[in-house]
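User: Hi! I'm working on a homework problem where we have to compare a predicted structure to a textbook description. Could you give me the structure for the chain below?
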Amino acid sequence: MGRHSDHLVEGTDPRLNVAISAPAGESALRPVLLLHGFASSAKLNWEDSGWVRALTETGRKVVTVDLPGHGLSAAPEEMDAYSPSRLRADILQILQDAHVVPLTEGNPASGVDIIGYSLGSRLAWEFGATQPELVHRMVLGGPGSGDPLAEFDLAAAQRFLTDGTPIEDKSTAGLLTIARLVPTNDVFALLTMIEAIKREPFVPSDAVPHMPLLLVAGDADERARTLPELAELSAQAEVLWLPGRTHTNAVTSRTFKSTAIEFLAA
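Assistant: Happy to help. Predicted C-alpha cells:
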C-alpha cells in the first residue's frame, strides 16, 4: 500500500494536513474521503483503527485530512478557519485537488464516497446535501440530530483551564477531557472551533442529503440517541446499532468496518 502525507496539489489550504493512500492494486473504483471526529485525527480515527488499510485492500484510494487544530494540521488564530461552512469549502477544494470528478452514470471512478465519525458525520451530512453531484454514498458514525459541541459550556471550560474551577455540565467536562488526552491537540484551538460551531448550529432538516446513507452507532452511545431522527429525514437511510459499543470505541468495531465497506460497494 502506497501512502504519502504531502499536501495534494496547489490549491488546498497549506495549513491542512491532507494525505492520500493508494489502493493495493490497479483500481478504477471511486475514492473514499474519511472525516474524523472532534479532538481526534486521521491517524487516531482511521489509520490506527485499521480503516485505511481495509479500504485500500478493497481497491479504494483513500483521502484523509486533519481538521484545523487537530493532528498535523496548523491551528490558525482566526475563528473563520474552524467554521463548518469553511470546513465544507476546504473539503470541496481537497476533492478538486484530488481530481474527484462529478458523478457519471456507468463510471465507477466518478464522485466520492464519504465516511465520517462524530463531528465528521455532521460535516459529511451537510457536505452531501450541498454537493450531491459529487457524493455517491455516505457512512455516518456516531451521528445525531443534535450537536453536543453546540451545548458546550465555553465559559466553564475556560474557567477550569484558568484556575481549575470544576465543570458542572457532564458533557462539557467529558469533551474537554477528551480534548486534553491527545498531546498534539491544541486545546485553545479546539475551543475556538467550538465557538465557531456554536455560531453555525447543526440543523439537519435544513439540508438533507439524498444519496444512500448508512448510520452507525453503538447502542451504548449516549451522543447518538437521536440517530433515528436523522434516519427519518432521509428516504435512503439504513441503520446499524453496534451492541455494547460506545461513542469512544464504536469506530474500532469490525462489524462497523465490514458493513460500511459492503454498503459502499453496493
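For your comparison, note the following. The chain has one domain: 3-146+202-265. The chain has a mean pLDDT of 93. Good luck with the assignment!
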